[in-house]
């Protein structure tokens, strides 16, 4: 009679460790895809960011954000401890899904509290959205 238990034990050993290694590889790949291993993604310069606008980029006093799915009129900004201006927008009107740049002139190195005020073209109501910029 031939003893086949040696092969079965070896196969069970390889399967157990193979599945464990596959789970570890999948977990590391998931963490990498979420940006855990990217040090630049850990420091968000805008937190909490605006609730009605999407953060795009911030560098050297220029904040780039993207409008949502509505058209806006009379867009203006105010910040604590400095001035801000919206660039590249004609008559302070912003179309749906349009990116725009806010130039921030602030000499402090602390957090900047920013308010964006705008009028929704459909409802004609004035809204204010806030964010904290980490300098």
Instruction: Indicate the percent of residues in helices.
Output: 10-25%
The CATH first-level class of the largest domain comes to Mainly Beta
Structural class: alpha+beta
**Main pleated-sheet profile:** 4 strands, antiparallel
- Looking at how many chains there are and whether they match, the oligomeric state comes to single chain
* Coarse shape: elongated
Distance, first to last CA: 78 Å
Q: What's the CATH topology name of the largest domain?
A: Immunoglobulin-like
CATH architecture descriptor text of the largest domain: Sandwich
Give a verbal description of the structure:
This protein has 135 residues and is of the alpha+beta class. The chain folds into two domains: 5-40; 44-134, Immunoglobulin-like. Helices cover 21% and strands 37% of the residues. The protein has one helix and seven strands, in the order αβββββββ. The protein has one helix spanning 5-33; strands spanning 54-59, 62-66, 72-79, 83-87, 99-105, 111-120, 126-134. The strands form two sheets. Strands 1-2-5-4 form a four-stranded antiparallel β-sheet, with no helix packed on it. Strands 3-6-7 form a three-stranded antiparallel β-sheet, with no helix packed on it. Strand 1 and strand 2 form a beta hairpin. The longest helix has 29 residues, at 5-33. The chain is elongated, with a radius of gyration of 26 Å. It starts with a helix and ends with a strand. The model has no long low-confidence stretch (mean pLDDT 83).
């Amino acid at each position: 009679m031939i003893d086949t238990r040696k092969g079965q034990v070896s196969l069970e050993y390889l399967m157990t460790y193979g599945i464990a290694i596959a789970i570890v590889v999948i977990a590391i790949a998931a963490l990498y895809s979420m940006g855990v291993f990217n040090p630049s993604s850990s420091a968000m310069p805008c937190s909490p960011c605006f609730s009605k606008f999407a953060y795009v980029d911030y560098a050297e006093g220029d904040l780039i954000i993207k409008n949502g799915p509505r058209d806006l009129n009379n867009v203006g900004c105010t910040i604590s401890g400095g001035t801000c201006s919206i660039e590249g927008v004609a008559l302070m009107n912003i179309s749906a899904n349009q990116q725009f740049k806010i130039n921030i002139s602030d000499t402090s190195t602390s957090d900047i509290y920013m308010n964006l005020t705008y009028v929704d073209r459909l409802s004609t109501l004035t809204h204010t959205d806030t964010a904290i910029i980490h300098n």
